[in-house]
Each structure stands twice: as structure tokens, then as C-alpha cells.
Write a structure and sequence with these properties.
The protein is α+β, with helices and mostly antiparallel strands. It has 3 domains: 117 residues, Alpha-Beta Plaits (2-Layer Sandwich); 96 residues, Roll (Chitinase A, domain 3); 200 residues, Orthogonal Bundle (Trigger factor, domain 2), CATH 1.10.3120. Helices cover 43% and strands 18% of the residues. Strands 6, 7, 8, 9 and 10 form a 5-stranded antiparallel sheet that branches. A hairpin with a 2-residue loop joins strand 7 and strand 8. Helix 8 crosses helix 11 and helix 9 crosses helix 11. The longest helix is centred in the middle third of the chain and has 35 residues.
Length: 497
């Protein structure tokens, strides 16, 4: 077998593999000898079929199996021998000439095929001890815990029917029918719908017109759907709603006590406070974590500059670009609305894709050198979390991860990345800084992806830097299973929630 390098430009490689016809024939003969005792051919006793006849009957099919095995196995074997790692699945090409293919299957011509790929660049890791990050810590005051408990308690608040007029804070139970140009529209009808006035759940103007109604009242209210309303057939349209008020109820008082805790399924008010404080700490901790991660990525980006595999960048760019266009379409906007052009946006997002791929390769190398591994238990927990997020679709999710090449990598990548970040945090300098919750929540546009964060339409992609970058080192990752679209809200509820 000959391996001839026909291209070596930057990270691009192309190899020509030539296996002489005599070697192919020898392989075929070995395979025929292996099956000789098992085949059954009329007129011959088992194991007594002449080789020439075996070759005539099974030669081409055996040779075809050998060809498939060679193109499947040899590229990996050759890359290992060369000490190279392909960024994506190598592209294998064989002759498309039918006459030439017949000669190869008949062992009358050398078998040649080409392998094209991009190598993952060699990365020399530097000292990470010079990386310095600031960990923002929020001290949670008791009043924040109380405020959150009161919000939670709304779900357990008792309401008592009253005879007077509805006021803000009262709960109105009603039937309604929405119409545009006098015609009822899908999603615009409900019976026994409950609405707490002032909650902002329904589209602007709807709740205001219910202030002052009483049980038994019938009323027609007029509203205008927001221009950015998700349902295109209703966006910006004037609509009327025929309302029948069935009950008006005043809210009961909320007290943070053991009785409230019991209603929420807990044993005491102290336990309720403890759990809510833990939830707030977890929420803030997640934001703190992402900010630390961003600082680490920014400094790694400054430290490592090297050529990135173009195919990996293409995959990453397409993922970002698809999301950007989806966001714009859902918002009913264009690039011009975001004070840019498609060409400028493409250039910026291409840079973002390059950065994410580069950082993914760096994190992968750091993790590999540090012996970071993702256990089977961790993978199982991640899969369980996927199942939990998609109730009713458990079988489809399991089938997806079992049958889709690369799907497991989409589970492993973020787990691996977070473990690499944990490793780095044990090696770098971390300084704690107490901040207010407003300071913690502030959008730091001077952080990663400065250019991408300048324009509103690009903030989502900029924030996505906190998402998996290690996945870039895995090659073309399989898309995660999509959530089933939730049932549309009743039109009157709008998008205020």
C-alpha cells in the first residue's frame, strides 16, 4: 500500500492511497478461503468447491466488502500513523468510472482512493497561573427572600368572592370571545378564565378595561395587539372581546408562616425561607459562574492565536447564523433594523465562530492534558435532564441519542467544558468581590464578543459564548433534539409573561 500526500496547505491535507491489484486479490483469496467451508453450492460437497469457482461466484461481492472496509478503516489507521487528528470526518473519494470500478472488483486494477481532511493544529499549552478573574458575590438580604416568597405565595393565595366592583389585585373569572373585523380568531376564546387585574398577563389595555366590572356584567372591550405579537395574523390588529363576568373575588392576605409553608408542601416557614434563599443563591451563582467563565475565555483568547480548521468554523458559523436569522424572523426585523447589513453581520459572526472553535480546541487540549473525563454516570444524568425537559417525548429522545451519530457528543461537550473550567479555577487566581444584585445582573458588553454585543440583534449570539465551546473540538456536532413547541397561549394573554 502506498500513501502519497498530494496536498499540504495550512491545515488542509489530501492523501492518495494506492493498494496494488495483486494485494487486493490476495486479500480476496484469504477471505474466500475463510468462507470456503461454509458456503453451499449445488453440485459440490461442503469444503470441496474449487477456488476458481468460488471466485467466479463470490469474488466481486467479497471484493466489494473489502473495498468498503478499507475506505472505512484505513483513513483512521493512516492518520494515527501520521500522528494527525482530523478536525471533522475525513472525506473519502473513489473513482466514479464504472469500467474502472469493474476492473478493481475483478482485481485487474489497483484500488485507489483519496482522503481529504483538515488537521487539528498542535497546541502548545502555556502557564495558566497568570490568568486572574474576579468572582462577583451577592449577599442576599432577608427582604429579597421575603419578596420572592411573596411572589411564590401568589399561587397559594386565597380569593373570596365579593359583590362590589373589581379593583386592581382582584381576580376576575370570565368567559371571553375575541374577534378581529367581527370574525372570531383561533385562540381567542375561553371559558371560566381567571385573571388577576394588574398582573400584566394579558395584552396591554385588556385588564384596565375590566377595572370596575361586577359579577354578571357583560362588556365589549377593544384592544390593539402589539406590533411584535408572535401570531402574525394578529400583530398590530385591532380586536374586540365579548366579556361575560362570572365572578369577582378579592385577594386574601398573605402571611409568611407555617400555614403558608404547609400549603406549599413544606413543614415550616423556616424551611421555606431556607429553600428560597438557596434558590436565589443558585440563580446568582449561575450568573457569577458565567461571568467568571467569560473572563477565562477572554484571557485564553488573548493567549492563543492559531489557524482554525475551516470546516469546524463553517459548522459553528452556520449554527450561529441560523439562530440569528430565526431570531430576526420571529421579531419581524431585518439587519437594517439593527443598524447593520447582512454582509457586515456575516463578517462579525464569522469572527465569533472562529473564536469559539479556537477556544474549544484550547479547552479540549487543556482537559486532555489534565486528564479530565466525563463519566458514564454524568452522561446518564445529563440524558435524564434532557428527558425531564421534554415530557411525553422520552422515547423519541432516547431513540435520537441511540441512533444519531454524534448525538452523544452533544451531551458530553458541555459536561467536559464545565469540568475543564473547574480545573482551571483550581489553577488560576480568583478574587472575590461583593456586589449588589443589580451590578451582578448588569449586561457586561465589554466582555467577550465586544463587536458582536454592540448591536441588540447580536446579543444572543454574544451571550452564547457561555454555551459550549468545547463542542467545536468534537467536529460537526449533531443538533440537540428540539423541544416540542408549546401550545399557543390564548391570544388575549399576549406575550407579556
Amino acid at each position: 500500500m502506498q500513501v502519497i500526500e498530494t496536498l499540504a496547505e495550512g491545515l488542509k491535507r489530501e492523501l492518495k492511497i494506492v493498494i496494488p491489484a495483486k494485494d487486493m486479490e490476495a486479500r480476496m483469496n484469504e477471505r474466500l478461503v475463510e468462507v470456503k467451508d461454509r458456503v453451499r453450492i449445488n453440485g459440490f460437497r461442503p469444503g470441496k468447491v474449487p477456488m476458481a469457482h468460488l471466485k467466479k461466484v463470490y469474488g466481486k461481492s467479497v471484493m466489494a466488502e473489502l473495498v468498503n472496509e478499507l475506505v472505512r478503516e484505513k483513513p483512521t489507521e493512516i492518520l494515527n500513523e501520521r500522528g494527525e487528528k482530523s478536525a471533522t470526518q475525513p472525506e473519502v473519494a473513489m473513482t466514479e468510472d464504472q469500467a474502472e470500478a469493474e476492473k478493481i472488483l475483478a482485481a485487474q486494477a489497483d484500488f485507489e482512493f483519496t482522503v481529504a481532511y483538515e488537521v487539528i493544529p498542535a497546541i502548545t499549552l502555556g502557564d495558566v497561573s497568570g490568568i486572574k478573574v474576579t468572582r462577583e458575590v451577592v449577599e442576599i438580604p432577608d427582604e429579597d427572600v421575603t419578596e420572592q416568597i411573596l411572589k411564590i405565595a401568589e399561587s397559594a393565595r386565597a380569593y373570596e368572592s365579593k359583590k362590589g366592583k373589581a379593583e386592581n389585585g382582584d381576580r376576575v373569572t370570565m368567559d371571553y370571545l375575541g374577534k378581529v373585523d367581527g370574525v372570531a380568531f383561533d385562540g381567542g376564546k375561553a371559558e371560566d378564565a381567571e385573571l388577576v387585574l394588574g398582573s400584566g398577563r394579558f395584552i396591554p389595555g385588556f385588564e384596565d378595561q375590566l377595572v370596575g366590572v361586577k359579577a354578571g356584567d357583560e362588556k365589549v372591550i377593544t384592544v390593539t395587539f402589539p406590533a411584535e405579537y408572535p401570531a402574525a395574523n394578529l400583530a398590530g390588529k385591532d380586536a374586540t372581546f365579548d366579556i361575560t363576568v362570572k365572578d369577582v373575588a378579592a385577594p386574601g392576605a398573605i402571611e409568611i408562616n407555617d400555614e403558608l409553608a404547609t400549603k406549599l408542601g413544606l413543614e415550616s416557614a423556616d424551611k421555606l425561607k431556607e429553600i428560597v434563599r438557596g434558590q436565589i443563591e443558585s440563580q446568582y451563582g449561575s450568573i457569577t459562574r458565567q461571568k467568571i467563565k467569560r473572563q477565562i475565555l477572554d484571557q485564553l483568547d488573548e493567549q492563543y492565536k492559531f489557524e482554525t480548521p475551516e470546516r469546524l468554523v463553517d459548522v459553528e458559523f452556520e449554527n450561529i447564523w441560523r439562530q440569528i436569522n430565526t431570531d430576526l424572523a420571529q421579531a419581524g426585523k431585518t439587519f437594517a433594523d439593527e443598524d447593520t447589513t447582512e454582509e457586515e453581520a456575516r463578517a462579525e459572526y464569522r469572527k465569533l465562530a472562529e473564536r469559539r472553535v479556537r477556544l474549544g480546541l484550547v479547552l479540549s487540549e487543556i482537559g486532555e492534558k489534565a486528564g479530565v473525563e466525563v463519566s458514564e454516570d454524568e452522561m446518564q444524568r445529563s440524558l435524564f435532564e434532557q428527558l425531564r425537559q421534554f415530557p411525553g417525548q422520552e422515547k423519541q429522545i432516547l431513540d435520537y441519542f441511540r441512533n444519531t451519530p454524534g448525538a452523544a457528543a452533544s451531551l458530553r461537550a458541555p459536561l467536559f467544558e464545565e469540568k475543564v473550567i473547574d480545573h482551571l479555577l483550581s489553577e488560576i487566581s480568583v478574587t472575590d468581590k461583593t456586589v449588589t444584585k443589580d451590578e451582578l445582573m448588569a449586561d457586561d458588553e465589554d466582555g467577550d464578543e465586544k463587536a458582536a454585543a454592540k448591536k441588540p440583534a447580536k446579543k444572543k449570539a454574544a451571550k452564547a459564548e457561555a454555551a459550549s465551546t468545547e463542542a467545536a473540538a468534537e467536529g460537526e456536532e449533531a443538533p440537540a433534539p428540539k423541544k416540542k413547541a408549546p401550545a399557543k397561549k390564548k391570544a388575549a394573554e399576549g406575550d407579556a409573561e
